[in-house]
Amino acid sequence: xxxxxxxxxxxxxxxxxxxxxxxxxxxxxxxxxxxxxxxxxxxxxxxxxxxxxxxxxxxxxxxxxxxxxxxx
Length: 72
Prior knowledge:
The chain is mainly beta and 72 residues long. Helix content is 0%, strand content 71%. The chain has a single domain, classed as Immunoglobulin-like (Sandwich). It has strands at 2-8, 12-20, 25-34, 37-43, 51-59, 62-70. The strands form two sheets. It has a four-stranded antiparallel β-sheet, with no helix packed on it. Strands 1-4 form a two-stranded antiparallel ribbon.
């Protein structure tokens, strides 16, 4: 299990999604309007194969993408 921390600066729609390298969404960790603050979400990769995944955070007009390496 992996913990991902998200900081939101103002009330806005925020989403955290995980994709495989083919662009298929494998998990939605957060998808809701959030008030300002810091939030944590947990990514349980149970049932996923080892490999590289992409985590995409979108909050208002802000976008960030990070690679995740899953080793079993």
